[in-house]
Amino acid sequence: MNQRNPTISKGIDWSLVWIYLLLVAIGIMAVFGATYKEGDAIVQSFISFKTDYSKQLYFFVAALVLGLFILLTDSKFFSATANIWYATGLVMLLLVFPLHSNVKGTESIIRLGGFNFQPAEFCKICVALALAKYLSRPETDFSKTRSQLIAASIVLVPAMLTILQSETGLALVFFAFFLVMYREGLPSGVLVIGFATAALVVATLLLEKNTLAMILTGLALLVVLIMRRQLKRDKSILFKIVLLWVICVGIQRFGVPFFFKNVLAKHQVERIYSTIGKDVPEEYLKGAIPTQTPSGKQTNTADYNVKQSKIAIGSGGLFGKGLLKGTQTRYGFVPEQRTDFIFDTIGEGFGFVGSFALLAIYLLLLFRIITVAERQRSVFSRCYAYGVAAVFFFHIGINIAMTVGLAPVIGITLPLVSYGGTSLITFTILLFILIRLDADRQMVLR
Fold this sequence. Notes:
mainly alpha; two-stranded antiparallel ribbon; 19 helices
């Protein structure tokens, strides 16, 4: 008589677990390197819960307990309760508005005793589950516009709530879930429109208004000239070209200025303009949040963080200066070096070799997640796995691009490495739910 093997290790993809443990260990070491103070007793400071690296260690213990609990949970639980997770996430996001604490310009954090909790981080899990649940329903025909709009709304509702909490960076992470929809049949034209809109926004920032309007008009006339034969047969094409021109000019003239004046915080506007190497228009500068330098001197230079970040990474050279031997990170020249700019600590301490090794580990993680996704029999498990891959990819790519000046500083963490309990626990839950689903990949979940 065959009995089900009750051991927790049955079916577990241990390569994902070992990569997870390696990244967390690197993270604790990096936080230690960024925040350790000379004279502190290392053992005592690690167990005191008074230093950032000791807190990160305890956050890891809590995350690991949650991970083990997830591995002991029936995988059907996650598909059965996906919509409940989503509803809970939305309620938590709504509770932020009356209960939030203003922390460094964001209003997305709730203080629970001595801890900070950011529901927008947790909501990434909820969206991954809910989107996978919807896409895996037998009655969902994703080739129809209605189904595509419903899937998009699952992603956009929490994104909009997060934007209203002055947390634009985290809100952008939700757009990574469109990669899941693309994998499941979202027309490539939707992604083309998205990238074209992004290009139009960048062009609006780079070019003078009238110049860009003339370029858009010229492009429209060129299209009309090229398609003159088709226009004779179908007059509606001309209407579509004119409508597209009106939309583009409307985005350039009204949409972008409205977004930059009324949605983005002033310091976020400064960071965006700094990334593209342009001066911020005077109308956006009023009330800009100043940057505090280590000497106590204030500066409105938006690229101060990135300049110090580049110096730190560059000073690491090929092999780095060694742990606790950096200058930029050890003496606080790089702001937020334990969270958003934790990559600087690795770059300065371990150089190009250490940075490359970290990127290689992340690439291995992403490759493994996609491999796991493609071997799933269940649509739910496959969609969820691609959601996990998309979130990790967005966080890794944007965070590292921020530190080297290739992307605006939008304040998102480096997965499993940056300091922060909410972030570490969120990524742990995301990954361990995937491991649990994969362990039961022979079952078809709905």
